[in-house]
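#structure-requests
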Amino acid sequence: MAFSGALTLTDLNDFLTPSQACIKPVEQVNEPQEIIEPGAATTEIVIDSSGSYFEVSANGASTNVSSKGAGRKLQQAQISLNDCLACSGCITSAESVLITLQSHTEVLNFLDSNPVSTPGHKIPVLSIAPQSLASLAASLSSSSGSPVSLRQILRRVRAFSTRILGFEHVYDTTFARHIALLEHTQEFFERKKGNGKLPMLASACPGWICYAEKAHSEMLPFIARTKSPQQVMGTLVKSWFGTRWGVQPDQIYHVSVMPCYDKKLEASRQDFYSDLYSTRDVDCVITTGELELMMRDKSWDLSQPVENEDIPDFDAEIPELLSHPGTSSGSYLHSLIDSITTSHTSPVDLTIKSIRTSDYEEFTLRARDTSEVLFKGAKCYGFRNLQNVVRKVGREAGVQVGRGAAGRLVGMRAKKRGGEDEKGYDYVEVMACPGGCVNGGGQLKPIAQAAGQKEDEEGFTRNWQENGVQMPVPEEDSATQGAKWGNKEWTKEVESVYWHDLPTPPPSPRPDLETPFDRADRLAAKVKIDLCHPTDGSLDKSWASVMDEGAETRRRELFRTQYRAVESEVVGLAVKW
């Protein structure tokens, strides 16, 4: 199999397995011992009947590990999330690293040790991404033959989480995404005024952020500082909801369900840790697959309906299942296009150009009367397209694109090709996964008639059991459903479920109700005022309103983050495989 010419030959382990440079620094804590015979070992390792390792003296001391003081039990080496984030050996290998503190087992252990009657009880809160709901709905619809909606899945997940697991609150993350989009738009217009570099690159994908920090630090000034919806939800749960519930952030245990393994690394970043309360905005992240595994372990049937699962909840604490038009990965690009279109006084036209595939598209917004280009953006999904965009952005911005933290400004103007009409990007929506977030590594695998399948999706012969895929034994005269490696058709199926909710009976007319987005805008402005504490009480009730300097500083601390380059000491071509 040949590699694409579009890929650069640097590190060939981009998100597949831990790098050979994945080494945790070891601290020597033993006291120096007197050397009796030069070159001879002073200790030896003994394994007892239980499989534990003991270090004992080799200088005539007894090797009876059961006797008191005869040996020192050795602790098992562990690599934490912070070790992974501090290491420069990997790019985005979170999916293949054992993450002991970010798993469904950790969630179950905490819930078991957190009964309501205990003095130190923490309020358990679960938030789930709409892409995870879509994956669960698509898998259930495929296996049962009956379509289900995101609202039905949300109600059933809420019932499982509260009745079986013991969570007290369950939310979806679309309102947090709404706030992230508002702040994202605000940051873009700040950059347009000269307060930052353009083009602005999306920041919601942790795989892309990890890759940029470790491989293309010259791109960091272009990446948006706005937090992802997961981390905005963490701010809402720990700070805003916590205040409403009368508890401190460390009295809440927040679990998020995400379609991506890299979200575990994002939640573990030091920027999202409160030194004051010794707690993280998101305490634990589990994937869609881990949530489904918990349901199977608890014998919960997701296909069984629950009461009122089709009825919208107008009295919910925050708006539910807000559908932002655009892409299933957050609609960051389309929210900017919509904002520019709305603010322009004359009609505008939008043209879309596909670059090779639908994972790389260019969007151009022009004034209808003058044909002036008002905005040019792109949607870029997958590492292959991502590398092309990095080179294009670097060329247009006059930045030398290099490996590691070697990017540096060069004293030249950005090159323009194709005449005066050619315009560089103003914004790029970047996602590491092909197909976007609905195709995240933590999503459920497609259900297919695969028991007798001998080839993978690329046409190569595959020994499924040898590769860890457990195939069910087919019964006589039955069509067996089994595991199958991901494909574009399945991604389209999940995408379809994400956008097309089932029709529900119209609720009783309530003219006093505002639209979901009107309520979301109003509530977002209230969140901003409640958390930022502006001194001017006469502010208009909108997210874009400018507050006093102290309140704006708190706003940036709450809803924005920062990035840092990670120096790499490994040259990919020098690694001995």
